Amino acid sequence: MRDHPATPLIGYPAVSDEEMIRRASAFREHMARRRTVRDFSDRSVPRQVVEQALLAAGSAPSGANHQPWFFVVVESPEAKARIRAAAEVEEREFYANKAPQEWLDALAPLGTDPDKAFLEVAPVLIAIFGQKRGGPRPSDAKKNYYVTESVGIATGLLIAALHEAGLATLTHTPAPMSFLNEICGRPADEKPFLLLVAGHPAEGATVPIAALDKKPLDALARWL
Ligand code: IYR
């Protein structure tokens, strides 16, 4: 490796194979209980939970460690109502005209429709943006690399962190999403990645049976 400032690796104490297997299984079981939820309660969420989850997301690996993400936490009823109204305009167009039949058929088992009440009911919406330019420090304006991959990984960690805290989430992707730049006050060169809805599930919330169907290991991986 080329000469560069470095520090000893910490945080990886030795762990037996048995203990690793136990931890990996426990984590797998915990993550398998995560559901994409569309019925939220209006119960509020402590700010610290969201702060800690965002910091966990911000620990994600990223291209050249530029951390090309920005998260806007939307809690104000006015902003949530504006986001719902703008999203529903796009969704009505999507379901009525834009989506090809094949896409509508794929969504049918999930029961989704253009009504996005959860955007107002849930206590927290997190609008996630990818930054074309930036850098490791907030004042940087260098070129960023692997923005989509980096933001996707950070979003995965955010979902896992919120799940670990006991909150339900929904990945919502109205298309196009450019209205989020305006409502969230973000520059035009930041690309909305997705809108993560977070909160407690409503009492009596249901999930589509089809969403429980997960691929077995031999369909999702192979060893060479
Ligand atoms: N954005 C629309 C449609 C939609 C698309 C996919 I792919 C989904 O997995 C779920 C929904 C909506 O939110 O209803």
From TrEMBL:
Q: Which UniProt key words apply to this protein?
A: Flavoprotein, FMN, Oxidoreductase
Highest taxon of the lineage: Bacteria
Domain called Nitroreductase: residue spans: 32-200
One Pfam family matching this protein:
Nitroreductase
- Gene3D superfamilies, alphabetically? NADH Oxidase
- InterPro entries according to UniProt: Nitroreductase (IPR029479), Nitroreductase-like (IPR000415), Nitroreductase/BluB (IPR050627)
Descriptive protein name: Nitroreductase family protein
